[in-house]
Amino acid sequence: LLLAVGAVTAQTRPLPQWLTGIIAISGFLFLAFVAILVKKAWC
């Protein structure tokens, strides 16, 4: 998943490798955080 996001980001606009990794990791953490909040709100 992270590799796919990094590849798509690298193709759309030329970002540095480290910046692409940071964006992918932060996006993944954000999605995980939202999933945890939804799970806590649901149960």
TrEMBL record:
It comes from Amphilophus citrinellus (Midas cichlid). It comes from the Eukaryota. It is a single-pass membrane protein. InterPro entries: PDZK1IP1/SMIM24. Keywords: Membrane, Transmembrane, Transmembrane helix. This is Uncharacterized protein. The keyword Membrane applies. Belongs to the PDZK1-interacting protein 1/SMIM24 family. The keyword Membrane applies.
